[in-house]
Amino acid sequence: MAITFQYNKTSLQGLEKQLKVRERALPTIKSKENALRLEVKRTKDEMNALEEKLERDIRSYETMAGLWSEFDPALISVKNVALSSKKVAGVLIPVLDDIAFDVKPFSLFGKPSWFIDGINVLKTLASTGIEAEFTGLKLSMLERARRKTTQKLNLFEKVQIPGYKDAILKIKRFMEDEESLSKSSQKIMRANQEKRRKEEVRS
To answer: Which pTM value belongs to this model?
Structure first.
């Protein structure tokens, strides 16, 4: 990104102001990026743990595959998923508070005794599955926020701050050169005037 400027005091003051704004904001952006990086890692670990748990639970119930053919899956459904939100490093992310299930009434005499256990198994599997899905959604939101923060950090740290410093240096050098040139011109003018005066006195 090329920084546009003019070789004058007004432009210099404007650039110095912009540089100060970015230098003041830099520590905040760095700590936000660091906090988001840690939260992304924590959420990734959480999601992996949930996916592994779900796989383990499914495998452990595979031995009951024959029994599941008798089970009526319409007996249980997800009634509601309660969500709230919290801020992590200034980013609003959803929080999974509760999963409510709707269990249809059934005759304990007309169905096998393990149906109650079957309902509890499905509740556990569905809860883990929903939690894993939800954690994946939260992870993508956090990663997007971290990417944007990293881009802003790189823009400030690697492009804008060095760019403003370079522009300020160029203006200062130009103004110093201009001042030196002006002083040299004045000296030459004074020397010429002095010379003319001396010549006038002689004549």
So the answer is: 0.73
